[in-house]
Amino acid sequence: MLDINSFTVLNNGVKMPWLGFGTYKIEYEESSVDYIKTALKVGYRHLDTAAVYGNEPIVGKAVKESGIPRNEIFITSKVWNNKHGYDKTLKAFEDTLKRLDTDYLDLYLIHWPKTLNKETWKALEKLYKDGRVRAIGVSNFKVHHLEEILEDCEIVPMVNQVEYHPQFPQTEVHEFCKKNKIQLESWGPLMQGKIFDIPLMKELSLKYGKTISQIALRWDLQMGVVTIPKSINENRIKENCDLYDFEISKEDMKKIESLNTGVRIGHDPDTITF
C-alpha cells in the first residue's frame, strides 16, 4: 500500500481502494457537500454511504461538483432493512441511483442480515449480472449469515463490511472471509472515539510520531482490511489519509491485536430490532 490510490482486487477482479471516506451521520444539508468535496480534494476516491443515512443526494452532488470523472470514484451504498426481498430490493436500488444521480454503483451491500437474506441476495445478483453494479456484498454478517448466503448463491459476496477495530477484530469472521475470498471492510475503526482512551494506542502514537487515528487506521490496512474513517473536520480528513510514510512493526501489530476484548461498540446483528 504505497499511497491513497492503493487498492485491493475483489474476487471478481474489481479494484476497490483500501481507504475510503465514510459518511455515516453526515447530515443532509448544503454545508455537508463541502466535507465530501474536501475528502475528494485531498485524494479519497472511495465514498461509503447508505440509504438509511439520508445523505445520498449530497454524496452525488459532491461527486458532480468535484469535477472528478465518475469512473475514478468508487461509490458504495446499501439496502436498508425495510427493503429486504427481491422486488423491494430492486426498487430500493433504483431509488438509490436517483438520489446519487448516477447510473451505476461500484458496490451495493445488504446493510444488515434479516430473515429475507436469500431473496435480497438474489436481487443483488440480478443487478450485478445486469451490469448495474460492479460488485455486491453484505454488511454486518456473521459467519452463520455468510454460510446461509453461500449455501445456494450463484455469486459469492465480494465484500463484508463489519464493525472492526482493535477491541473487536472479529477474527472468526475475518478468517472465514479470507478462506472464501470475501474482502473484509471496517466500519467504526476508531471505536466511535473510544480508541483515544487506550494507553497502548497513546504509547504507539508517541513511538511512531503519528496520531492515534493514524495508528489505528494503518493497523486496519496492514491487517488486510479496507477501512472507511469519517470526519467533518478538514484537518482530520487530511490526517486520516496520511498513512503511507510509516509501517507498524510485527511486534506492535501483535500488541494491538492483544487489545481484543470481544466487546462491540455497535449492535449485535443477531439481536437487532430495527
TrEMBL record:
The record marks K78 as: Lowers pKa of active site Tyr. The keyword NADP applies. It comes from the Bacteria. CDD domains: AKR_AKR5G1-3 (cd19157). Coiled coil: none annotated. The active site is at Y53. Residues 19-260 form the NADP-dependent oxidoreductase domain. It holds the Pfam family Aldo_ket_red. Keywords: NADP, Oxidoreductase. Signal peptide: none annotated. Substrate binds at H111. The keyword Nucleotidyltransferase does not apply. GO terms for molecular function: oxidoreductase activity, acting on the CH-OH group of donors, NAD or NADP as acceptor. InterPro entries: AKR, AKR5G, Aldo/ket_reductase_CS, NAD(P)_OxRdtase_dom_sf, NADP_OxRdtase_dom. Belongs to the aldo/keto reductase family. This is Predicted aldo/keto reductase, YTBE/YVGN B.subtilis ortholog. The lineage of its organism: Bacteria, Bacillati, Bacillota, Clostridia, Eubacteriales.
